[in-house]
Amino acid sequence: MPVPASIKKISDTVWEIPTSYKEGMRVPARIYATEELLKAMDDGVFDQITNVAALPGLVKAAYCMPDAHWGYGFPIGGVAPVDTKTGVISPGGIGFDVNCGMRLALTNLTYDEVKPHVRQLVDRLFERVPAGVGGTGFVKISQDEFRRVVEQGASWCIKHGYGWKEDLERTEEKGCIEGADASKISAKSVERGYKQIGTLGSGNHYLEIQVARPEHVFDEKSAQAFGITIPNQVVIMFHCGSRGFGHQVATDYLQSFLKVMESKYHIKILDRELACAPFHSREGQDYFAAMKCAINLSFTNRQVILHRIREVFSDVFRRSAEDLGMHMVYDVAHNTAKLERYEIDGETRDLLIHRKGATRAFGPGMDGVPEAYQAVGQPVIIGGSMETGSYLLAGVKSGIETFFSTAHGSGRTMSRTKAKKQYHGKTLQEEMAQRGIYVRTVSYAGLAEEAGGAYKNVDHVIEATELAGISRRVVRFSPVGNVKG
Amino acid sequence: MPYKYLEDVAIADVAFEAWGATLEELFTAAAEATMNIMVADLATITSGEKRKIALEEENLDLLLFNFLQELVFYKDAERLLLRVAKVRIEQGDGIVRVEAELYGEELNPRKHDLGVDVKAITLHQFQVEHSAGAWRANVIVDV
C-alpha cells in the first residue's frame, strides 16, 4: 500500500489522514515524519493508525512517530490520547511487552581506558545478565514475594540492595507507578514471570557499551546536565521489558475485553487486537491496575540488570561502581498507558495516553521531570540498531503537539523472516568485530534479524523528531560492545 | 512442513500460515510453527516431559489462539519446549474443545539451536478458515 492519496501535508514533518479515509474513524491520523521517512513507511502503518483512530474517546488525533512501522493492533510508534470520561483502555495500544524500555547509565571512564577490557566486559555481562528464550534470573523469590515486587517496583530492589536510592529519582514514575494492584493479576502471569527478574529477553532487546564521541555532542550544556562531561566517555545502554509476566497480563486482559466489548459495552472496533473496554468500567480499571504491575516489574527488571552491570564493571576495573561514577542518567518506558493532564480548548482534561513503541518526552519545567533535569527537559533514550548508534535526546515545550511523545528507536524496515535470509549471524558478528563492535549472542539467527540493514537510518529518524519539534538531540553514542538478547 | 513464515507481513514480529487436511493437523502445524520460531531444529526436542492441555471456547479461532498460548506459557513457566503427540478436537453445542498430549524437555541452549523468544500470540489478522478441502490459519506472533 503506498502512502494514502488523501493524506494532507500540514508541514514538512506533519502529515494528516482525514476521517474520510476509512469508515469508523473518529479523529484524523497524524504522522510525524519527513517526506522521505513517510514514503518509506510500510503498508501496516497507515492501515493500523487509521484503525486506532476509530477507538472511542480519542482526543484530537491518533499519532505516529517518525520511526513508525507495522505492529499488531497499534503500529509501533503509535500514540493515542484518550479522554478518560468517554474513552477506552486497550491492551493492543500498549503491547504485550508492557513497559519495555531503555535505561542509560554513565561511567567516568574514557574509551581509551575501556577499550582493552571490552571483550572481558561483554563476556562477563553475557554471563551475568541472562538473555534469550526462556532465560531465568538470579533473584530467587517466592510467588508471594513476586506479588509484592510488582506492587513496589524498583523501590523493592533498593530495599534489597540491588541499586542506589538516587536511581529511583532518575526513573520514570520513580520506578513505581501508583495504583498497581496484585489482586488483579492471574496466577498464570505470576508463574510465567517470577523466575525471570534480571533477564534481557530476546528480539530487539540488548545491552550495549557505547562511546560519546566529542563530535557527536550536539548540545554541550544539556549533555553536561545529563552527565556526559568527558570526551569519549563510556556509557551503558540497555533495552528490555516485563518478560513473560507482562506478556501474560496483556494476553489475559485481551481475552477478557473481547468477551465484554461488544456484548456489554457495544464497542465496535476494526481489528480484534484493539480489543478495549471503557476506561472507567470494572474491566478497564482491573486491567489498568494489572498493567501497572507489569510496568513496575519492568522497572524492577532493569534495576536488577543495572545492579549486575555495576558489579561487572566493578570486578573488571577493581574499583567500586561509585568510584567509577556509574550513575543512572534515566529510564524511559515505551509501552504504557498513563494518566496525564492536558488543557484542551481551554478545558483541563485527564487523558490516558497510550504510547506503543513511543517515548514520553516531557519538556523543561514539567512535573515528573527529575529536579536535576528541570532546566533541560526529560532525557529521552533512543536505541538505534546494534550496528549504527543510539541517541540521548531531551523533551521540548513544543512536544505538546504530540502529547509529549517522540520516537523510541530507529524503526524496522525489513521483516525478521526476510532479514534472516539476507544476513548471516556469524558473518555479521565477524564484520562487526572488524569495525570495533564486539557482540555476544545466544542466537545467531536472532543476531541476523537485528542487522543494521533491517532498520531505518537512526540519524534520519532523530533529525525528523527535531525538525518536527517533538524532541531535540543532545548526544549520539557509538556502540563498541553488545550483548544481544 | 505444513507451515510457512511470511516475509512481507508484520515486520517487527513473525507471521506464519499453517494448514492441514483436518483441524487436528492444523493445530499440530500451528504448534510446530510457533515452536520453530524459538528452536531452529524441532527434531532436537526429545521426549522426557509430558503435559496435557484441555481447553474449550465458543469460537474455533480463539481455541487455536489459546492452544498456542499454552505452549508459550510452558516455555516461560517451566522452560519446557513442547511438541504435539496427540490432539483431538470436538465440536458440539456451540462449543469447540481441544484435548492434547504434549511431549518435550527443558530448554537447553547447548542442545537446542535457539531463535527468538515468543512473547505472545496476537489477534491481529488472526484467522482460521476452511476452504478447498483444507484448514488454514494465519497467525502473527509477537517476538
Question: What characteristics describe this protein?
Answer:
heterodimer, A: 485 residues, alpha+beta, tRNA-splicing ligase RtcB, eight-stranded mixed beta sheet, seven-stranded mixed beta sheet, B: 143 residues, Archease, Possible Chaperone, Chain: A, domain 1, five-stranded antiparallel beta sheet, three-stranded antiparallel beta sheet, 2 helices, 43% strand
Written account of the structure:
- The complex is a heterodimer of chains A (485) and B (143).
- Chain A is of the alpha+beta class and 485 residues long.
- Helices cover 32% and strands 24% of the residues of chain A.
- Chain A has a single domain (8-89, 98-484), classed as tRNA-splicing ligase RtcB (Alpha-Beta Complex), CATH 3.90.1860.
- In chain A, helix 8 (187-193) runs antiparallel to helix 10 (243-261).
- The mean pLDDT of chain A is 96.
- Chain B has a single domain, classed as Archease domain (Archease, Possible Chaperone, Chain: A, domain 1, 3-Layer(bab) Sandwich), CATH 3.55.10.
- Chain B has helices spanning 23-38, 60-77; strands at 3-6, 14-20, 49-57, 80-92, 95-106, 120-121, 127-131, 134-142.
- In chain B, strands 1, 2, 6, 7 and 8 form a five-stranded antiparallel sheet that branches. In chain B, strands 3-5-4 form a three-stranded antiparallel sheet, with helices on one face.
- In chain B, strand 7 and strand 8 form a beta hairpin.
- In chain B, helix 1 (23-38) packs parallel to helix 2 (60-77).
- Chain B is globular and about 45 Å long.
- At the A-B interface, strand 4, helix 8, helix 10, helix 12 and helix 14 of A face helix 2 and strand 6 of B.
CATH fold name of chain A, please?
Answer: tRNA-splicing ligase RtcB
Q: What kind of sheet is the major sheet of chain B?
A: 5 strands, antiparallel
**Distinct helical segment count of chain A:** 15
Total strand segments of chain B? 8
Topology of chain B as a string of helices (H) and strands (E): EEHEHEEEEE
Q: Which word captures the global form of chain B?
A: globular
> What percent strand of chain B?
35-45%
As for the CATH topology of chain B, it is Archease, Possible Chaperone, Chain: A, domain 1
Strand content of chain A: 15-25%
Which blocks of ≥5 consecutive residues of chain B have pLDDT under 50?
A: none
The Rg value of chain A, from CA coordinates, equals 21 Å
Oligomer: heterodimer
Radius of gyration of chain B: 14 Å
Just give the CATH class of chain A.
Alpha Beta
In DSSP terms, counting alpha (H) and pi (I) runs of 4 or more, how many helices of chain B? 2
CATH architecture assignment name of chain B: 3-Layer(bab) Sandwich
Could you tell me the mean pLDDT of chain A? 96
- How many domains make up the 3D coordinates of chain A? 1
